Amino acid sequence: MTPLLQVSNIAKFYGHRIGCTDVSFDLYPGEVMGIVGESGSGKSTLLNCLAGHLTPDTGAVRFDTRTDGLRDTVTMSEPERRMLSRTDWAFVHQHARDGLRMNVSAGGNVGERLMAVGARHYGDIRATATDWLGRVEISEDRIDDRPTAFSGGMQQRLQIARNLVTGPRLVFMDEPTGGLDVSVQARLLDLLRGLVREMNLSAIIVTHDLAVVRLLADRLMVMKDGHVVETGLTDQVLDDPQHGYTQLLVSSVLQV
Amino acid sequence: MTDYNFAYLDEQTKRMIRRAILKGLAIPGYQVPFASREMPMPYGWGTGGVQVSAAVLTPDDVFKVIDQGADDTTNAVSIRRFFQKTAGVAVTEATTEASVIQTRHRIPEEALREDQIIVYQVPIPEPLRFLEPSEVETRKMHSLEEYGLMHVKLYEDISQHGAIATSYAYPVKVEGRYVMDPSPIPKFDNPKLEMAGIQLFGAGREQRIYALPPYTKVVSLDFDDFPFEATKADHACDLCGADDSYLDELIVDDAGGRMFMCSDTDYCGKRRKDGHVGAQGVPYQEDAA
Questions:
Q1: A112: nearest CA in chain B?
Q2: ipTM of this predicted structure
Q3: Residue numbers in B near A121 (CB within 8 A)
Q4: For chain A, which ranges sit under pLDDT 70?
Q5: What is the pLDDT of residues A76-120, one digit of tens each?
Q6: B155 → closest Cβ in A82, A115, A117
Q7: CA distance A83 to chain B (A)
Q8: Domain definitions of chain A by residue range
Q9: Residue A97: its chain B contacts at CB < 8 A?
């Protein structure tokens, strides 16, 4: 089986400081990988390198494209990369307002990716948008409201709908539950887990919340100071942490 | 005519503007940056159009200025006087007699010929501006032909108003490539953008020039189930009776009285001269004010 994403020796430096270095892994179709670590450990830098928002200094990110098989997204042309990022990839930002157009209605936000890939039939676009709002539990009568009128949790769900509407195969998530209260987090996680299974999505989830990876991720990568310190199956890493930092991380979780 | 260089601008500046115009004509719909000069008028009054006109005028040209279709409003009168004074060119109000027409917000009703140039005053040349504030990003979208966002604007129109409510500055696609803002002309004029004359667009404050060569294919954007419509007031001109021209609505008293009249004053006047009379019109008389 070919991996969907093959990452080899990614490194990104900010001057002399390390963003992330020496990161390699394979991600297979349908697999969800979590990246955890404290603030400043290079998680977001890594994610941005993988999603094409940052250019890594060394290494390759090969993605299994629909037409040409494995292609290095670092060296492919910008139009191709941007095409990937609005068809086969999705990026869920921590702050919904980074990923949404706040002055465009919910329907327009969901429809944008469809129109970007050539949909030109208003009725069809609207029907698809309505369907997707339903799938992320936003009621149909809010379709013409702007995201500014939505709560934080609804904005985040709208962002997810907007990203998944074109049926991507790989989803990058940067702290998808950050800044939401726990009950909203729980519903969002439930929704995400359902969608990931139902659409057989592969996902890379960056978070510092171990509960999120416990629920969603099959595999886990622990980062510290730009290096990967431990990898393995989620339950294995969380239940039997080997590296000192991982042990600290696991033991730091507050028990209620 | 010794106070100014011909047509106000110095020759080096005109040369720079002509280069931008030629580049614009070579890449229809592409916004060419140019070093816009200070003009003796405020931004928003047509500084871009005036610079383009100054760069294309020759001493033999006959110049016409339109403001919202009319030849006799402040903007039109002052720009016409400006070039009378600084270039000494002949001026006219008749569309057919003019060789260079500078316009704001309208295309004349009469079809232009191959030997005519029309210069548009453009306030904001970037059709994607109100959806994407970053210039870096909009340029990238143009270069990569990523125009999905333009349809988001039309989608929003339909979802809020039940129809495409954008009625002026209606976005068009030029020769299947660049999406262009046709300046704030009513969408009624959009079909006329495919014409025999040369069309030049100047945005002074935004420092952009773009152009449409003769017979360029210009398609107004729309949805399959909400096709583009060139709309106008559903009425005939009350002065000349024309039912195919773009109309202005005029409130005539405080009791709900109103009349519709051609926005193109030259077209209306000519029709009245030819004996057409509208519902509230009076037969044409020479020298009648």
A1: B152
A2: 0.85
A3: 223-225
A4: 256
A5: 998 899 989 888 999 999 898 899 999 899 999 999 999 998 899
A6: A115
A7: 9
A8: 5-88+168-255, 98-167
A9: none
Token code pair at residue B219: 């398609």
**A122, A162, A166: best to mutate for the B interface, most B CBs within 10 A:** A122
Active-site residue list of B: 29, 237, 240, 262, 268
pLDDT of residue B214 exceeding 80, the answer is yes
* Tens of pLDDT, residues B248-263: 999 999 998 999 999 9
Whether residue A123 and residue B225 make contact (CB cut-off 8 A), yes or no, is yes
CATH number of this structure's domain A5-88+168-255 = 3.40.50.300
B151, A120 Cβ separation under 8 angstroms: yes
Distances (CA, A) of B244 to B103, B191, B233: 20, 13, 10
Which chain B residues contact residue A112 at CB under 8 A? Answer: 148-149, 152
Give first-to-last CA distance, chain B, whole Å.
32
By residue count, chain A amounts to: 256
- Residues 6 or more apart in contact with residue B7 via CB below 8 angstroms: B14, B53, B54, B55, B57, B83, B86, B87, B89
**Can you tell me the distance from the alpha carbon of A168 to that of A170, in angstroms, rounded to the nearest whole number?**
6
Q: In terms of DSSP H, where are the helices of A100-227? A: 106-116, 122-135, 152-164, 182-198, 210-216
Asked if B144 and A78 come within 8 Å (Cβ–Cβ), the reply is yes
Are A140 and A105 spatial neighbours (Cβ–Cβ below 8 Å)?
no
